[in-house]
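Reviewer 2 asked us to include a model.

Predict the structure of this chain.
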Amino acid sequence: MANYHAKVLVVGSGPAGCTAAIYSARANHHTILVEGLQPGGQLTISLEVENYPGFEQAVQGPWLMEKMMAQGKHAGVVVMEDSIVKVDLQERPFTVTGDSGAIYTGETLIVCTGASARWLGIESEERYKGFGVSACATCDGFFFVGKEVCVVGGGNAAVEEALSLTNHATRVTLIHRRNSFRAERMMQDRLFANEKIHVVWDTVVEEILGEERPPSVKGLKVKNVKTNRISIIKTDGLFVAIGHIPNTDLFKGQLSLDAEGYIITAHDSTATNIPGVFAAGDVQDPVYRQAVTAAGTGCMAAIEADRFLTLYL
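Predicted model (structure tokens):
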């Protein structure tokens, strides 16, 4: 059984993980980054990224993450192709176990396991992800300028997505399975006052309709849950806004989590309830969920880990 030890152990390889690892390695700390189940994080399913600073033209999400990873390796980061299945934070060095059976220990640990968008779970959704189906209006709304789009959901996230998309689309149809929203009343008032937004109540999406070559969304087959009536909604895109799931199952009972499962960090810090353990990116951010903010907190975590190592070890 292989054993690996690092001054800074980073779990997760999205923008937060890569940035944390780069900063840690540049601080001359032996740094190991364990990639996780989705190397590169959620950006790897973003075919075009236009809002990451430094690029005049849109770049491919997978390409951007390849560059971040290459930068980390150039700085001296040791990248492990493994997924963590067990965590022991009871004492330092902290111990995590990989799916490969390898044991990784770290004097400090930076958790960057991210969050996963909740999807509808229908077969056609997988077919059109990145080709008209998205979970981020901030990321992909610009591609629907002058087009018609649909949003699925009924909470704050769905209402925010719908309002955001009115800056680009000519018409936004918000589909909700109930007859009332869970969103805050002020946000609902803004939504109902917007002439571009049309609400379809008591309805669920049964199938996403479109063309196969090249893949493109053309409409939705929806069902009214009260009457079972099937109808077709014409649309150029679908935004799924039914929430995110932080990837924190491994840390339950060890790190403090909020009611939604996000890791709780100290104010203006990435420090968790365990000294020497830090959390960055979407795993502790239910609000912004952007690549650039994830990278920013990854930088913060690395700097805080460096200070911890300097002061306490």
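Residues 156 and 185 are 10 Å apart (CA to CA). The first helix runs from residue 15 to 26. We have added this to the supplementary material.
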